[in-house]
Write a structure and sequence with these properties.
Shape: globular
Radius of gyration: 28 Å
CATH architecture of the largest domain: Alpha-Beta Complex
Mean pLDDT: 91
Distance between the termini: 63 Å
CATH topology of the largest domain: 2-enoyl-CoA Hydratase, Chain A, domain 1
Strand content: 15-25%
Number of strands: 22
Number of helices: 21
């Protein structure tokens, strides 16, 4: 059977290779490369995607709408006549996809380039003269509520209002800053309205000059990537084409490691500037490179330096990163204007903030453990690479050594990651049994189980989630909820991503690709939907916490259901599994928490502020009259004072790092400062405070019922 499957996939790959080689003899250029990319993606989706659907006119219309929205998301470039012209392709993109042609893309790029050049003239002309801020007029911020304009005069008027809106906001802020500065010092130079308005326009002009300069640096591949992803995202929002540089950045985020010098960079004007030095990195150890330094040139060892002034940031980064053990010689302009050459030997840079960490929380005489897991990370590049399962297991051992009564497992803002690792981590809290089930293409079912009967931690667990908790986070929360192994707390629901993706390197599908052609990139493709062990799905619905807490996300259109072309919710048969028998009455504990939340003034403030922010977002039309704008700003600022306390008050938790971690952190001043800041922020976290209150309730319940039994 296995051999037959291999043959089934081998035949189409050979056919693709043969047809592309024919093209290669014709002309090996960027045109051929984009044809290869599109053809291989077409093949991969047709044969591997969970639900490829029909490539027809309906598909074509969806691609058209998505691409146009991404091409001109603010409706500040294209005219209605441009949309009408491009609409001739609205039902042809499916044919172009199959025929591997790019007439629609090429025509759209010509149009957007022309309109961008025109817009460049608009903003420069508009910002050269003062605005009339006494005029009564409105500006709509929400592009969904705008129509495409009919002609260039209307487009110029749209730009005028947009720039006026930004300027009036800057003027208002600058007057407020001047007023506050004058209250603190009598040496502040007081500027009048005319001077401040001119300065505000100047700053805005500089920002738009920078933005349009970055637009001018866009390459054909950048437009191609938008187009291809508009095609791929019609199948579902999580399938995505990754050019080589984007795949490299994805791998860094997924593994928490990279090879390079360990400096976070940004682009300011034409310069690459150091934004942050990563603690423990080669730059940090070498000590000469500093925040604010401008990198002018990069040399690889003794080679000739390469000038990177006015180079795109992503291109410059390619020359600054490099293999472990190699030398980067940087020509740097320091903040005092002096020039120097800094030699740094590249090494593996570890992004510590991406890894699991733990702490001890003391409250009411009890010791509780806390684990923060930012993502379900794994380093696929090494057989023994770092992974979240091993790290979480280590953190649990640290907490057990401190004899904690319970654990808070924090998955807030965790967008997911490794499916294999989440199954193994869930297995640390249950004896054995299924954790998640999935369906693949053509209904192929798979059950992922914990087969290890050992339970690493058998005491109470509270799982914290929010609207950003997605995918693997939802698998973990759902499994522990279904087993009644943990109490899940958070907003109204998690993100709602119930699909599984894998990566395919496109070059591997074209074994005889021309050797001098750039890499084709990678395709992240949805291959399965996953389901809870109770048969339900997290797709669209997410995981609904046992205890719902006030959260700003509760008032936002956020999550899978608000993305373009999400897969539908469905359910399958439940699996057989044995629920955990908790040492407490779950419903009773939930009741206590819900009563406490409903009576908590800070929780009420969060709810009230969430409603206020939603009203502000929905009210998307603003006055461009200065007096009216300032009045609205003052009203909102005054209203906002009521909510300034949120997240500022210390909540009386005693939080410390584990004894095992103490020597390492105390010996590193930078690490100690970061740890102290982390612990301080935890002590202001009202959601964590409620999680601890829940654990207190559980301990009190256990003690009370233990006395009854005695």
């Amino acid at each position: 059977m296995k051999n037959r499957i291999i043959k089934y996939f081998a035949i189409p790959i050979i056919l693709i290779s043969a047809s592309m080689i024919t093209l290669a003899y014709r002309n090996n250029d960027d045109g051929l490369r984009r044809e290869l990319v599109l053809k291989v993606i077409d093949f991969a989706i047709e044969n591997g995607h969970y639900h490829p659907g029909n490539i027809d006119d309906g598909f074509s219309e969806k691609v058209f709408d998505l691409y146009i929205e991404r091409l001109d998301f603010g409706k500040r470039f294209l005219l209605q006549e441009d949309i009408d012209e491009l609409s001739e392709f609205k039902n042809e993109i499916d044919n172009e996809f199959k025929d591997v042609t790019f007439y629609f893309l090429d025509e759209s790029v010509k149009l957007i380039n022309t309109r961008t050049a025109e817009a460049q003239q608009y903003y420069r002309e508009i910002l050269s003269e003062p605005f009339d801020f006494e005029k009564e007029e409105q500006y709509e911020l929400d592009s969904d509520k705008k129509e495409y304009v009919s002609n260039k005069d209307e487009m110029k008027e749209r730009w005028r209002k947009s720039l006026k809106y930004e300027t009036v906001g800057r003027v208002t802020n600058m007057f407020d800053e001047q007023e506050k500065a004058a209250e603190k010092s009598d040496t502040v130079t007081i500027k009048n309205f005319t001077e401040i308005e001119k300065e505000a326009r100047g700053k805005l002009l500089k920002r738009y000059d920078d933005w349009f300069h970055r637009i001018e640096q866009l390459e054909p591949d950048d437009r191609l990537n938008i187009y291809i992803n508009s095609i791929v995202n019609v199948f579902d929002p999580h399938s995505q084409y990754f050019p080589p540089k984007d795949k490299e950045n994805f791998d860094i985020r997924f593994s928490g490691q990279l090879e390079g010098i360990g400096a976070q960079l940004t682009q300011k004007d034409e310069y690459i500037e150091v934004l942050r030095i990563i603690p423990g990195s080669p730059s940090w150890k070498q000590g000469e490179l500093e925040v604010g330094d401008k990198i002018l040139k990069v040399a690889q060892g003794d080679e000739e330096p390469l000038d990177i002034v006015d180079m795109r940031l992503d291109k410059a980064v390619k020359f600054i990163r490099g293999k472990k053990g190699t030398e980067a010689r940087l020509t740097v302009k320091k903040m005092d204007g002096t020039m120097t050459i800094i030699s740094i030997i590249r090494d593996v840079v570890v992004l510590e903030e991406t890894y699991a960490k733990s702490a001890i929380i003391e409250h009411k005489g009890n010791n509780y453990g806390y684990i923060k897991l930012p993502s379900f990370y794994v380093d696929f590049s090494k057989a023994d690479g770092r992974n979240c399962f091993d790290d979480v297991k280590i953190e649990i051992d640290k907490l057990k050594a401190e004899q904690v009564e319970s654990i808070v497992f924090d998955l807030r803002d965790n967008g997911g990651g490794s499916l294999e690792d989440v199954v193994k981590i869930a297995g640390l809290f249950i004896k054995e049994g299924p954790v998640v089930q999935s369906l693949g293409k053509n209904g192929a079912k798979r059950i992922l189980e914990d087969t290890d009967t050992n339970i690493q931690f058998d005491k109470p667990v509270v799982v914290m989630v929010n609207a950003i908790s997605a995918s693997a986070s939802e698998i973990f929360a759902a499994a522990l909820q279904d087993y009644q192994r943990a109490i899940v707390i958070g907003g109204t629901s998690t993100f709602g991503k119930g699909t599984v993706q894998n990566f395919t390197e496109l070059d591997r599908m074209v074994p005889r690709k021309p050797t001098d052609m750039k890499d084709l990139g990678s395709l992240k493709m949805t291959i399965q939907k996953f389901y809870r062990i109770n048969g339900g799905a997290t797709q669209l619905k997410g995981v609904e916490p046992d205890i719902v807490m006030p959260d700003y996300y509760n008032f936002m259109d956020f999550g899978e259901k608000d993305m373009d072309n999400p897969m539908p919710w469905d359910e399958i048969d439940a699996l057989v599994y044995s629920k955990w028998t908790p040492s407490y009455d779950i419903k009773y504990i939930e009741k206590l928490s819900k009563e406490r939340i409903s009576n908590d003034t800070m929780m009420q403030l969060i709810d009230e502020n969430g409603e206020r922010l939603k009203e502000m977002r929905d009210d998307s039309e603003y006055s461009l009259n200065y007096a009216e704008h300032k009045e609205l700003t003052d009203i909102r600022e005054e209203e906002g004072k009521k909510f300034e306390r949120i997240g500022k008050d210390s909540l009386g938790l005693v939080i410390s790092i584990t004894k095992v971690d103490m020597p390492l952190i105390e010996s590193d001043t930078s690490k100690k400062a970061r740890t102290d800041a982390w612990l301080s922020n935890m002590n202001k976290d009202i959601y964590l405070s409620e999680a601890v209150n829940i654990l207190d309730d559980i301990e009190e319940y256990k003690e009370k019922h233990a006395r009854k039994e005695d």
